[in-house]
Amino acid sequence: MFATPAYAQTAAPGAGGADFFFQLIPLILIFVIFYFFLIRPQQQKAKQHKAMIDAVRRGDQIITQGGLHAKVVKVADDTVEAEIAPNVKVKVVKATIAAVVSKTEPANEN
């Protein structure tokens, strides 16, 4: 005669798969937004920083992440030797170089 409220609110047997798909759409959109606004720019910034560090050579003026301004005296694999004052040299890990202020011109091979 009358349908009970519990029976009236149940979903149709075949509608479960479509509901699951529509519930995934917001999650997929959130991931796409995170990728284009957070993940991708961070990857590009890291790639530019690595290229800048790989291009450091003797004579460049650098700024470290600690705020020291220095002139590169010697370049090694993972470190550079930098002069922060006349006759005061320190070893700096390449990854802690924040910026290259002025680059030296490459030596002429002539």
Fold and architecture overview:
The chain has helices spanning 5-8, 16-54; strands at 61-64, 69-75, 79-85, 88-93, 97-102. It has 110 residues and is of the alpha+beta class. It has 2 domains: 17-51; 55-102, SH3 type barrels (Roll), CATH 2.30.30. A 5-stranded antiparallel β-sheet has the order 4-3-2-1-5, with helices on one face. A hairpin with a 4-residue loop joins strand 1 (61-64) and strand 2 (69-75). The termini are far apart. The mean pLDDT is 86.
Number of helices: 2
> Largest beta sheet, briefly?
5 strands, antiparallel
Return the domain count.
Answer: 2
The string of secondary-structure elements, in order, is HHEEEEE
CATH class of the largest domain, anyone?
A: Mainly Beta
Throw out a few tags for this protein.
SH3 type barrels, rod-shaped, 110 residues, five-stranded antiparallel beta sheet, 5 strands, 2 domains, alpha+beta
Question: How are the SSEs placed, and which strands pair?
Answer:
Layout: H1 5-8, H2 16-54, E1 61-64, E2 69-75, E3 79-85, E4 88-93, E5 97-102
Antiparallel strand pairs: 1-2, 1-5, 2-3, 3-4
Question: TL;DR of this structure?
Answer:
This protein has two helices and five strands; from the N terminus they run H-H-E-E-E-E-E. With 110 residues, the chain is α+β, with helices and mostly antiparallel strands.
